[in-house]
Amino acid sequence: MSNPDSGTPQRVISHFTNRPPEQQSRGWSELWDLDQSHLWDRAKPSPALVDLVESSLEVLPISRQGRHPGALVPGCGKGYDVVMLALHGFDVYGLDVSAKGVEIARQYAVTELAEPKEYNFGEKEKFSAAQPGTVKILVGDFFNRQWEVSCAQDGCEGFDLIYDYTFLCALLPEMRKDWGRRMSELLLPTGVLVCLEFPLYKDLKALGPPWGLRGVYWDILAQGGDGIMDEPGEEIEPAGGSFERVFYSQPPRSYENGKGTDMISIWILKQ
C-alpha cells in the first residue's frame, strides 16, 4: 500500500475514491500497468517476518517427513516475502490481481532464489543452508476460488501458514468480513495466520488505502465482527469469532512506514 512517509499517499487514496468493491482489483492492476508500484513497494521482505520465522516459535509450522509446510501470501506484490519464506523451507504461493505484478514477481523469484540477498535472513549462516521450498506466483482474486484450482493440482488443499501485510489495509472496510471468512476457508485446521498489523497509527475514520486497522484484526478474527468501527473496541474474552490469538508482540524490527506501531499477531482456528 502507499508509503505514509513518501509524500504520495493522497495519490493512492484519490485513485480509489468512490470505487465500489467490484472495481478494487481493477484499480490495483491499473496502478501496476502505469508503473506506480513504487507507491507501496517496500523493496525488501519484512524484517519482522524474517525474525519471526527464524525464532523457532513453537506455534509455527515446520517440515515433517520431508514435506515443506505450505504458505500463502495474498497481495504479494513483487514477491519479497514469498521468496524469503521459500528460502526458509516453505512451499509458497504468492497471489496478486495484477498480471504485470505477477510477471515481475516471477522474475524476481528466479533471480533471488538463485542468488539470495542478505536481507532475506537475520542469521544467514544458520538459515541459508536450509533446503529451500518452492515458489509459485498466481494471478487471481483472493475472494474468487478459481485460483485454488492450480493449488489443488499441486496437491495443496489448504495452507499451514498465511501471511497478511498491507493486504487487509488495502481493502474497503465493507470487504473485511469476507477477508476473515476466506482466511478461515484457506487455512488448514492446524495452520496459522500471521498478521503484521499495519497501519495502527492511522485514524480509523481516515480515508484509505491504506485504511487504519487498530483493533480491526481482533474484531474480525476473535470477535467475528465486520471490522467496521470508528474507535477500537475492548478485547473481551471469551470471543465469538472463528480464530484464537496465540501470539501478540511488537517486533524488534519492522518497516519504518509503521512509525514504531506495527504488531505481529498469530492466529489459529478454534477447534
From TrEMBL:
It comes from the Eukaryota. One of its GO terms (biological process) is methylation. Gene3D superfamilies: Vaccinia Virus protein VP39. GO terms for molecular function: S-adenosylmethionine-dependent methyltransferase activity. Keywords: Methyltransferase, Phosphoprotein, S-adenosyl-L-methionine, Transferase. Pfam families: TPMT (PF05724). Residues 1-27 are annotated as: Disordered. PANTHER family: CYSTEINE SULFINATE DESULFINASE_CYSTEINE DESULFURASE AND RELATED ENZYMES (PTHR32183:SF6), PTHR32183. This is Thiopurine S-methyltransferase. It comes from Gibberella intermedia.
